[in-house]
Design brief:
GO terms for molecular function: 2-keto-3-deoxygluconate:proton symporter activity. It holds the Pfam family KdgT. It is a multi-pass membrane protein. This protein has one domain: Na+/H+ antiporter like fold, CATH 1.20.1530. The protein is globular and about 60 Å long. With 346 residues, the protein is mostly helical. It is built from 19 helices and no strands.
Length: 346
């Protein structure tokens, strides 16, 4: 008898990230002594998030192809610049108001500059590619090749530094992006290694999600209720509007921009990594993880709805005859990696 566990998990928005994270949080909340009781490899699963993530970013880097057409570079670079630019502006504004610490009371309890920047900085790649495959132009799918550079804590650390908050030593900044760069080099030197390493990306997502979940106490999760919902809506609105106009300026219909207005599942791992690199963010990391995870789920539901609505207004847009050929020539060597999303995901 077969039980469709994978299908059931994937029916949950961002399921491969959120379901293991919730399981880890439940164990920690109701059976906090579990890792100490079992020890050994079982105990290591509860504390190995950073190690698993380091391997994850090497494998993700291997999936990125250096070769791209000018259009893909222009489109992906523009969306990347605008998405990160919005996060920088918000980081500067909220950094002046909140500093490194989270709000400790009231209806905004748990919100922090770290949570806002982490939620805004990174696009759900699996969701973006699926939406562009359905509503966009074929060559716009390849833009995610460039946007993948959002992955990981590097740009969040840079954003927090630009915002005038606690700076990170250059060694820490390099260390945050080095696994991704190493993976990119390996994957572009050897297509077989790219295919080999890329296949590991979706496999590792539930493992680091579980380890992250074990650091959460569900007695505090209720704080992410309406606040998490509001942050998720804010990601779609606050990043979606400038991304829409940026896409239009680069010759698109605006659909690609709106499809990029989401939070990547991997972003839920960023607060813990940032706090490990700089203790000034230790108090903000746990509530930020909860809020960012909520944004992953909310945007995974809301972004497709908004994208479909916009596609009904502006239409798919006329493709040039060679779009599909150009895209195939430039990104065929890469193995598409779908992060956490309702369709498979980052």
């Amino acid at each position: 008898m077969q039980i469709p566990i994978k299908r059931a998990i994937e029916k949950v928005p961002g399921g491969m990230m959120t379901v293991p994270l919730l399981i880890g949080a439940l164990i920690t909340t109701f059976f906090p002594g579990t890792p100490q009781f079992f020890g050994s490899f079982t105990g290591a699963l509860f504390s190995g998030a950073l190690t698993i993530l380091a391997v994850f970013y090497v494998c993700m880097g291997a999936s990125i192809d250096f070769r791209s057409t000018p259009y893909i570079v222009k489109k992906g670079g523009t969306l990347l610049f605008v998405k990160v630019g919005v996060a920088v502006i918000l980081g500067v504004v909220f950094g002046r108001i909140l500093g490194e610490s989270p709000v400790t009371g009231g209806m905004f309890a748990g919100i922090s500059t770290l949570a806002i920047v982490a939620a805004m900085n990174d696009t759900n790649g699996g969701l973006y590619m699926a939406l562009m495959g359905q509503y966009g132009r074929p060559k716009d799918v390849g833009a995610y090749t460039i946007m993948t550079l959002e992955s990981g804590p590097f740009l969040t650390m840079v954003t927090l530094g630009v915002a005038g908050l606690s700076a990170f030593p250059w060694q820490t900044l390099v260390g945050a992006i080095l696994p991704l760069i190493v993976g990119m080099i390996i994957g572009n030197l050897d297509r077989e290694m790219r295919a080999f390493l890329s296949r590991a990306v979706p496999v590792m997502i539930p493992f680091f999600a579980f380890a992250l979940g074990t650091g959460l106490d569900l007695t505090k999760v209720w704080q992410a209720g309406l606040l998490g919902l509001g942050m998720g809506v804010a990601v779609v609105v606050v990043t979606g509007i400038p991304l829409f106009f940026a896409d239009r300026l680069t010759g698109g219909t605006g659909i690609a921009g709106v499809a990029a207005a989401s939070t990547a599942g991997n972003a839920a791992a960023v607060p813990a990594i940032v706090a490990a690199a700089n203790p000034a963010y230790a108090d903000a990391a746990r509530p930020a993880t909860i809020l960012v995870a909520a944004c992953v789920v909310v945007t995974a539901i809301l972004t497709p709805i908004v994208t479909a609505w916009l596609a009904g207004i502006v239409g798919r847009g006329a493709d040039e005859a060679d779009d599909t050929v150009a895209l195939a020539d430039d990104i065929a060597p890469a193995v598409p990696v779908a992060p956490v999303a309702p369709v498979a995901g980052r």
